[in-house]
Give the backbone structure.
Amino acid sequence: MNATPSRRLVIVVRADPVICGHSGEARNLAEIALTRGYDDVRILTWPLARLEETGLPLKPLDTVLPYSPGIVVERPEPVGGYKIPDGRYLAGLTGRLVELFTDGVPTVCMSLYLSPHTTAVADAVRTARSTGLPVRVTTIAEAVGSDVTDVVRACVEEDRFGAAAHVLSSYLSQDVCVAVSDYTKHVIVEAAAQIDVRHGTSFASQCRDRIDISYPAIDTASYLGLDAAHTASVLAARGLEQDGYVLYLSRLGAAKGVDDLIDGFAAAMAGHSLTLVIAGRGPDADALRRHAASSPAAERIVFLDDVGDEEKPHLMAGCAVYALPSKPRPEFTETFGIALVEQMLAGGGPVITTDTGGIPEAVGDTALTVPVDDPAAIAGAIDTAVLGMDDAARAAHRDRARAYALQFDRAVVFDRLFEKVAAAVR
């Protein structure tokens, strides 16, 4: 890294080890920035101790792949004493952003999650400009998921105008506003319209005009051309065989439909010769383990809570079916479905999922789509994928899914997004 950088990218996000597709997206954007002339690339996130306190699902630290040389991960310490609970951490994050914005280096700052990251960036920009020091910063705000389906919707439903106005005005104050799917943009505009009707504001028209779509950036190369012998070794270490299991690999939460998958797997004809592998961590892990233990297929269900970044593509490549029967819940709706795209790239069995949120944008017409809350349909889809498709049909399905997923390659997404940045600067 140069002593005096010429171009800086700062990404503010819930980074690794949080189990979240957007922590991976931040890593992917940072990696591509190194190849696009940025000589100072930083990810600003939260101290590990604070992440552990929140109860967020976290990967074991020893399973997280290192960042490339040239990417600096900063975890600013809290500011102030214990009498200022969460504000201490936000003050540390915002304060560090002010320092980065006032040192004269041309900077692009991207925030993933409107609350609290975009609000922190907005406060930092305002503060930086008030110092009278040179500020050369362009900002990008990406609305990604639960910050919309949980935070913004909750503000509307509870008629918390001030909180909603804070989030939306901070979002619209950024130079480039993007959402991870058309569905996400629709949710934002819809919520803003409800606020406008109640309070006479004009957020909806601004959101409709300002928000572009920028799909999540995925490292496609990590899922392509996997060595078959290495995959077999990874599976053997887990006691698995190629095409011998149905895979779920994502966060263990109620909105993900894992309970329906367990019931559907138990009812599937093909399930009698397969194992169901449920990989991930999350708030509902204990409840799902109890549900699985009471299933007729209990002895064929395996939970994995230590899958690392290197192992994940191989588990996906070896499965007979990958299932994510997500369903809309007040606290979370799938606004894209990064894991679905990763599976499509890895080339394992067909994807089984639902027509929920932004999932149709992630999978196109390449998935076996089932209704929400329908274990019987899941059972039928498993049987279709395992018993109803010969090798040629599975190969054709796999090729079509992979071709669709390549549009989300991180270099393609980065370049499209930064064309918007260049336009904003002009």
Q: What stands out?
A: The chain has a mean pLDDT of 93. The first helix runs from residue 21 to 33.
